């Protein structure tokens, strides 16, 4: 099947993704507070992205377990409840906007 036939059969659709304004800023234009948030978010998901095996997170059944384990690690560090949902959101935002730190 071609992309055109999938579109015509409504099995595929166009999605317009608008790049957030903050991703268009030069590094020197980003306030220090926003850089700190970006780096904190990166530190939360970096072990998931840079795992033992490249692409491990995409293996069947791996993502959920990896995120649950990472949420537990973060919860122990902060003495709080694990928050898997925010890890999923950060990962998806990272991937959606080109696998760039500034997406965070």
Layout: helices, strands, pairs:
Layout: H1 3-8, H2 32-49, H3 62-78, H4 84-96
Helix pairs in contact: 2-3
What does this structure look like?
The chain has 4 helices and no strands. Helix 2 (32-49) crosses helix 3. The mean pLDDT is 89. The chain has helices at residues 3-8, 32-49, 62-78, 84-96.
Q: How would you describe this structure in keywords?
A:
4 helices, 104 residues, mainly alpha
Q: How much of the sequence is in beta strands? A: under 5%
Helix content: 40-55%
Main β-sheet, in a few words? none
The coarse silhouette is flat
Calculate the mean pLDDT score and round it: 89
How many DSSP H or I helices? 4
Low-confidence stretches: none
Order of helices and strands: HHHH
Number of strands: 0
Distance between the termini: 36 Å
Please give the radius of gyration in angstroms.
17 Å
Broad structural category: mainly alpha
Question: How would you sum up this structure in a few lines?
Answer:
Helix content is 52%, strand content 0%. The chain contains 4 helices and no strands.
